[in-house]
Amino acid sequence: MPRLKLGILQVNHDRSVEVGDAFPDDAHRFRDLFDAQEQRFTYRVYMTIGGEVPQDVEEQDAYLITGSPLSVLDDLAFLPPLYDFIRACDAAKKPLLGACFGHQAIAVALGGAVARQDWNIGIDQIEVSETLPWMQPAMPSVGLYQFHHDAVTALPDGCTRWATSPKCAVAGFAKGDHIFTTQAHPEFSDPFMRCVLNYTKPYLSADEVANAEATLTRTNDGPLFAEWATRFFGGTP
Prior knowledge:
Layout: E1 4-9, H1 26-34, E2 41-46, E3 62-65, H2 79-92, E4 96-99, H3 101-109, E5 113-128, E6 141-154, E7 160-165, E8 168-175, E9 179-182, H4 190-200, H5 206-214, H6 222-233
Parallel strand pairs: 1-2, 1-3, 3-4, 4-9
Antiparallel strand pairs: 5-6, 5-7, 7-8, 8-9
Helix pairs in contact: 2-3
C-alpha cells in the first residue's frame, strides 16, 4: 500500500548556533518522531516562514503546521496566506494537524482567539477531556513537552476541546475528523528541550526556570501522540 503523503508547513527557521546548528529543524523533528520505528509517510516540506504554502489542498493527503518561537499576535507576512490555506483545508475537510504555533494559527484562522499568558515550559501533564476516535490507545492524561507564552483563549465555532491542564485551558482542540491540534511539542526530545531552555534562560525568571526543570523527569508521551496523529491522518501506526 502506498504511503500517505504528508505536507509539513514549517513556520520556523532557527539559525542560532546553540539550537539551530545543534539539532534538526522542526520538520525533521516531526519526521524523526513519526519514523522512529519505520517510515510512515512520504514528506513534502513547505517553508511557510518564507511564504510558501501549498497552492492546492489536494497536493498532499494531509498536512501539519509546526511550532515556532514567533507569535500569531505579531504582524508576520506569512500569516495571511497561511490563514487562507487553513480555511481551505477546513472547507475541503482535509486532515490538518497544528502543534503549538500551528495550534494557535488554526484557532485564529477559524475565528478563535489567542492571548499572551504566563510561560508554560517543560512537560505538562494534560488531561484528556474528550477521547477522539483516533486517540487509541486511550489515556486519561498525557505528558507532553511545552514551550509557549501565547495560548488559545477562545475556540472557533464548531470546535471541541480535547485537552486541558491547569497551565493551559485549551491544550488541544478538534473540528470534525479533519482538524486536530495540540499546544504541545510532541516532537521535542529531552536534549532538545534542555538546550532550548538553557538558551532561553536570560529571558526567564529564576522561578520559571526552576519550575520548568522540575517537570523534566516526567514521562514524555510524544511517541503515543505520534500514533494518534498517524491514525488521524488516515495511516496505520
